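This section describes the prediction task in plain terms. A model, or a person checking by hand, is given the sequence of a single protein chain and must write out its three-dimensional structure as a string of tokens. No templates, partner chains or ligands are provided. The sample shown here is typical of the held-out split.
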Amino acid sequence: MAAPRERPGPRSAPSLRGLPGTDRAAEFGRWKAQCLGRADLSRKGSVDEGAAGLVQLLNGREQYFTTSSCAGRIVLLDGGINGFEVQKQNCCWLLVTHKPCVKDDVLAALKKANGDAILKFEPLVLHVQCRQLQDAQILHSVAIDSGFRNSGITVGKRGKTMLAVRSTHGLEVPLSHKGKLMVTEEYIDFLLKVANQKMEENKKRIERFYNCLQHALEKETITNSHAKEKIKDKSNSSYTHKKKRNPEAACGKCITEENAKECENDDDPGMSVTIFPEDY
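The expected answer:
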């Protein structure tokens, strides 16, 4: 799993709030270059193969960059003997795989357990910093439609907009207590079938997310291009019709028509965006 890279502190990350559009885009670009230029501090040290295409697609757009990612994995953790809620930073990783898992591998790993071993399946997790809220809303809509229904947007005090892509189809089951296996091998075999099915579903959702995101970004590019052409055409034609009709009436009619077209061509997906607190 690609752990979140070290991010700039308050002194090195100036606020985006109140900056003009051009300055905001330039500051976001500097953040992006700085973040992507850092070494990968995750356990693996590189982006998971299953999420590489999605990460590359997002980082190739000027309005996004990824800060952490995990394509999905099956994990066997050995926690403390007094803890029912195993914390990853205080436990031993007995087994980690991003591919379907077999019973023999789990049984071999369980022999090393001294505490409370827990089998987990964790679906895709992706954190993306967005240039502005509108960009995050587009990405959020695609994530929800692709099956990642636990996704949410965080807007920080300095104007930093983050999107977390998450799903709810995880799995977490205790297998041993104080080093003693508490379930049968038959049950472990059953759990792995469930976990492997979830892994396959996770893969399908990632593919759906990639395809839908690609389509949404292409649509946005075309829409923005048409909008710029309309603005240019209106600017060039404003002097042509100025003397042929009442300026006040013409202005009012122009504004009315423009607003109507904006309502008709509004690309807002109309979803309910969840805004999480900054320390979520």
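For orientation: Helices lie at 21-36, 49-59, 103-110, 133-145, 185-237, 247-264.
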